[in-house]
Design brief:
It is a single chain. The protein is α+β, with helices and mostly antiparallel strands. Strands 1-2-3-4 form a 4-stranded mixed sheet, with helices on one face. Strand 3 and strand 4 form a beta hairpin. The chain is globular. It binds iron/sulfur cluster.
Length: 165
């Protein structure tokens, strides 16, 4: 039985992008490691390693945490943002964990991809939204089979396409 505590940021990102992808990932069916995007992602991860903050807490694996005037700022870097909404929800998930788990009072998030910068704040409305999403993810992952494949444009660049198409 999969529980909400096992949810990590990548799963939130996948859930917003494609529910089938989220189910496959949560069931340890991993995408094609030779996929161009996956390979590029690994290289990016190595480059930014020196900036990583290691938190021995829950499923927090964001790129950077800094203390700004009056608040903490979580920064997440993406090599590309095929789905900005998914990136924002992943970041919101980290803010949620920091607020609920570490009880940090004022936390903001910043998502950077190339020249694009998206700000995410931990408002009550946003926190309630991510709470609902986590409940839905738990339900999805506990389904015995993956949701059916339905073609969408993003499938063409998805590392899981060999499983689906
Ligand atoms: S190929 Fe399409 S349906 Fe399959 S996991 Fe990727 S995005 Fe989802």
């Amino acid at each position: 039985m999969f529980s909400k505590d096992q949810i990590a940021g990548t799963l939130v990102n996948y859930y917003i992008t494609c529910k089938r992808e989220a189910w496959l990932y949560a069931h340890h069916i991993y995408p094609d490691q030779e996929d161009e995007n996956m390979a590029l992602g690994r290289v990016m991860a190595e480059i930014k390693e020196q900036n990583l903050q290691d938190f021995a807490f829950a499923n927090l694996k964001f790129d950077k945490l800094s203390k700004e005037r009056g608040h903490y700022l979580v920064t997440e870097y993406k090599k590309s943002l095929k789905n900005p909404e998914a990136g924002k929800m992943q970041l919101l998930f980290y803010l949620y964990l920091l607020k609920i788990g570490l009880r940090l009072k004022d936390v903001k998030g910043r998502l950077i991809s190339g020249k694009s910068v998206f700000l995410v704040d931990a408002s009550e409305e946003n926190l309630n939204m991510i709470k609902e999403i986590l409940i839905d993810i738990e339900k999805l992952v506990n389904m015995p089979t993956a949701p059916k494949f339905e073609y969408k444009k993003i499938c063409d660049n998805c590392a899981y396409r060999n499983y689906c198409m």
